[in-house]
C-alpha cells in the first residue's frame, strides 16, 4: 500500500499544471472567509456574549475579529500569503475551540474551513493572482515581463486537497445517508427544502413538486458522493463530477439558508476544473492583439516598475509595453515625435491608432484592462482629472533616469523571496524532493487512518447501535477513538458529515417563533422568524444552526431552549431599542411536517400553518423568566426556569 501511494504521489508531483486554479482557490477561499468574519462581527454580541449587551464576557472579540479580517484580506490579494494563512488557521482553531462558536453556533462549516485552511498552508498559493509574485518580480534583476516564464505547479497540489477535503467528506456523508429512510427513498435533497427553518427567501415549490425529478436528484447525490473519491481524477469523468458538484452546492447556496457551507464547498471546484480548460478560457478572454500599446523609457526604474505592475494586474493581457527607444517607425502616429518627448511622458496608442499621453495613458490602461474600468471613468471626471494630472506631472517630472539593463535590480525595492511551505518542500532538487514525498506519503496514510477511524466510529458503529460498553477491550478502543477524533476534528477538520438525516428530521413537528408587544400595545414579530416560519436574513448560516439545530429539535432540551431564547430576546431588545423590563415576549408554536415519504406541495403547507401561543418570556431587572405551556409541546419537555445574570451551560 505504501509503495502504491508513493508511486501515485510521485507521478502527480512530476506532472506540471497551470497555477491558475490554485490562485483562484486561494482568492475565493479568502472571500468566503472574509464574509464569515464580517458575519461574526455583525452578530458578535449574539454569538459571544453570554447575555447579549448585558453580560459581555469577551470584550476583545471585535479586535481579534478585525485582525482576522486583515489576514483574510491579505489572503484575498495574496500579500504575505504564507503568514496570512498561518494566522487565519490559528484563528479558526482558537475561535472554534475557545468560544461559543462551536457549542451553539456551528453547522459543520467551521470544521470544513479549518481543514481547507490547513491544506492551503502547503499549497502554492502565491504563484498567480498574488501580490507576493509581483513583489518577487520587483525585487529581482529586471527583466521585461514577457521574459518571465508562466508559473506552473505540481498536479499533486490539485489532487491531494480534493481527495481529502471533498473525497473523504462525500464518502463519509454517503455512509450516513444509507441509514436515513428519506435518503433511501430518494428524498434527501427534497426534505430539507420543504422545512421553513431551512429554506432561503426564494420559494422553490415549483421545483420541489416534481416528484420524479426530486427522487432522481436524491439518488444521483448518493451515487455521486460514493463514487467521487474513486473517479474524480479520471480525465474523462472529471467534467461530469465537476458539473454535478457545482450544481449540488449551487443549489444548496440558492435554496437553503446555509449559504456559507455551499459557497465554501463551491470554492473547491476551482481545483477540479480540467487543466486544459484554463488555457482555453484564457485564450477566449484575451484579445488576439493588445488593445493598447504603451511606450516606456527602459532606463527609468519607475517606468520599469510600472510595466511590471500593470502587467501583473492585466489578467486579460490587453496591454503591451514597448521600449520607446527602439520602437522604430511602425507607429505612424508617434513617428513625428522626437525621442526626448517620448521619454518625457508615457505615450500609448490604442487599436484605432489614437495617441494618449500622461494621465490619459493611465486612464486608458484602466479602461482597456476591463475590470477596473470604473476607476478609469472616475479619473475622467472634472476636478478629479485635474488633480490626478497634477500628481502625475509632479511624479513624472521628478523621476530619475539611470542606465538599467538586464542585470540591474530596480532601485528602491527590498529584496524579497517566497518562503512558502510548498517551495521549501517541493521546489528542491530531485533527491530531496523524493525524500519529502516519502514523508508526505506517511502523512497521507495517517490522515487516511484518521478519516477511516471517524467513518467507522460514527458511520458504522454508532449507526448500527453496536454496544461497546460491555466489552472492556471495545470500551478502551472506543475511548481511544474518541480522543483521536477530538484531535483530528480540531486541527484537520475531520468530522462526521451526518447532516440532515433521519435523526435530525424524525419528529421535527413543531416550529417556534417570537413576538413582542410594542409601545402601542400591538403584537409585532421579532425580525428573526416571520409569520411563515422562515428564518430571516441575515440570520442565516450559523445563527440558523443555533435556532433550527440546537434550540428547536425533535427533542427540545429545556435548558438549551431557554438559554437561546434569552440570547435572542436580549439581542433584539437592544437592536430595536425596547425597554427590556417592560416588554412581554410571546413564544409562538405551529405544527410542522417532515415525513420520509413524498407529500405534494409540502413546503407551502408548512409555511401556511396557524400559530398558537406556547407561553411568554419576560425580563425583570436583567433576569430572565420563561413560562411555557407544556401541553402544546405534546411530548416535548420544556420546563419553566428562572435565571440570574450568569448564563447556565
TrEMBL record:
<dbReference type="GO" id="GO:0015035">
    <property type="term" value="F:protein-disulfide reductase activity"/>
</dbReference>
<feature type="transmembrane region" description="Helical">
    <location>
        <begin position="84"/>
        <end position="100"/>
    </location>
</feature>
<feature type="transmembrane region" description="Helical">
    <location>
        <begin position="112"/>
        <end position="131"/>
    </location>
</feature>
<keyword id="KW-0812">Transmembrane</keyword>
<dbReference type="Pfam" id="PF04134">
    <property type="entry name" value="DCC1-like"/>
</dbReference>
<protein>
    <submittedName>
        <fullName>Thiol-Disulfide oxidoreductase DCC</fullName>
    </submittedName>
</protein>
<keyword id="KW-1133">Transmembrane helix</keyword>
<feature type="transmembrane region" description="Helical">
    <location>
        <begin position="60"/>
        <end position="77"/>
    </location>
</feature>
<dbReference type="InterPro" id="IPR007263">
    <property type="entry name" value="DCC1-like"/>
</dbReference>
<dbReference type="GO" id="GO:0012505">
    <property type="term" value="C:endomembrane system"/>
</dbReference>
<dbReference type="InterPro" id="IPR011020">
    <property type="entry name" value="HTTM-like"/>
</dbReference>
<feature type="transmembrane region" description="Helical">
    <location>
        <begin position="240"/>
        <end position="259"/>
    </location>
</feature>
<feature type="domain" description="HTTM-like">
    <location>
        <begin position="14"/>
        <end position="277"/>
    </location>
</feature>
<feature type="transmembrane region" description="Helical">
    <location>
        <begin position="27"/>
        <end position="48"/>
    </location>
</feature>
<dbReference type="InterPro" id="IPR052964">
    <property type="entry name" value="Sporulation_signal_mat"/>
</dbReference>
<feature type="transmembrane region" description="Helical">
    <location>
        <begin position="216"/>
        <end position="233"/>
    </location>
</feature>
<keyword id="KW-0472">Membrane</keyword>
<feature type="transmembrane region" description="Helical">
    <location>
        <begin position="152"/>
        <end position="171"/>
    </location>
</feature>
